[in-house]
Amino acid sequence: MKPDDCQVSGIKRRRESTVSGERELHVSADQQLSAVSDGKDPVNNTLKEITSRSALKAAPELLGWTLLVNGVGGRIVEVEAYCGSDDPASHAAKGETARTVAMFGPPGHLYIYRSFGIHWCVNITCQPPGVGEGVLLRALEPTHGLDTMRQRRSRHAVDGNISKAVSDKMLCSGPGRLAQALGLNDSYYGRDLIEQPFQLIPPSGRVEYETTPRVGISQAVERPWRFVESGSPWVSPARFKKCSSLRTSI
């Protein structure tokens, strides 16, 4: 285990979206136009740079990004890091299997699995191929396509009419709800996030976050590898005492 990869100190931080180091990501309309003309996309490059790192470094950097699938989605406000062979709670702890092929693949792709045979859970792969790390998406602040989300998340729908609506705060709160609201399932397994139908938009400013232990695991339960946007009403209702004071993504 590398100390800088799998250790997080307990302080509250405020994070700025960055391309590298301390340089902020500001992409003007002219730069976007230039990127299209020369075949380069600064946002996609930034995403690849973030996900090429360890899951622990990538997880807080993904907070505040907006994830859209066919135009439906929202801001990422809660994630968990899973650190491969050094992490007994990770699906990758015992090496590559038929189930975890995508997790050991290139960074910035989707590793999707079914939890307890019921809910789909969505992870973004991290590190170079062969390492097997990922960031689990646990909650979004819904911002785009809320009507579609409400329809997908309704408890009962007859002829397209919702008979029992779900609170907007519960649309994407928790990994299973998030996947259902975005329409994600195993048909998206291994897909690259920089390709259609996905769109990722970087945060416009700083993101404050806190850390807690991860949710719903039986091993390595003490590790504070769950990252939540500070003060967000959209995070999942996990009952854990926070492990850190305020942090800022850097």
UniProtKB/TrEMBL annotation:
<feature type="region of interest" description="Disordered">
    <location>
        <begin position="1"/>
        <end position="27"/>
    </location>
</feature>
<dbReference type="Pfam" id="PF02245">
    <property type="entry name" value="Pur_DNA_glyco"/>
</dbReference>
<keyword id="KW-0378">Hydrolase</keyword>
<keyword id="KW-0234">DNA repair</keyword>
<comment type="function">
    <text>Hydrolysis of the deoxyribose N-glycosidic bond to excise 3-methyladenine, and 7-methylguanine from the damaged DNA polymer formed by alkylation lesions.</text>
</comment>
<dbReference type="GO" id="GO:0003677">
    <property type="term" value="F:DNA binding"/>
</dbReference>
<dbReference type="GO" id="GO:0006284">
    <property type="term" value="P:base-excision repair"/>
</dbReference>
<dbReference type="InterPro" id="IPR011034">
    <property type="entry name" value="Formyl_transferase-like_C_sf"/>
</dbReference>
<dbReference type="InterPro" id="IPR036995">
    <property type="entry name" value="MPG_sf"/>
</dbReference>
<comment type="similarity">
    <text>Belongs to the DNA glycosylase MPG family.</text>
</comment>
<protein>
    <recommendedName>
        <fullName>DNA-3-methyladenine glycosylase II</fullName>
        <ecNumber>3.2.2.21</ecNumber>
    </recommendedName>
</protein>
<keyword id="KW-0227">DNA damage</keyword>
<dbReference type="InterPro" id="IPR003180">
    <property type="entry name" value="MPG"/>
</dbReference>
<dbReference type="GO" id="GO:0003905">
    <property type="term" value="F:alkylbase DNA N-glycosylase activity"/>
</dbReference>
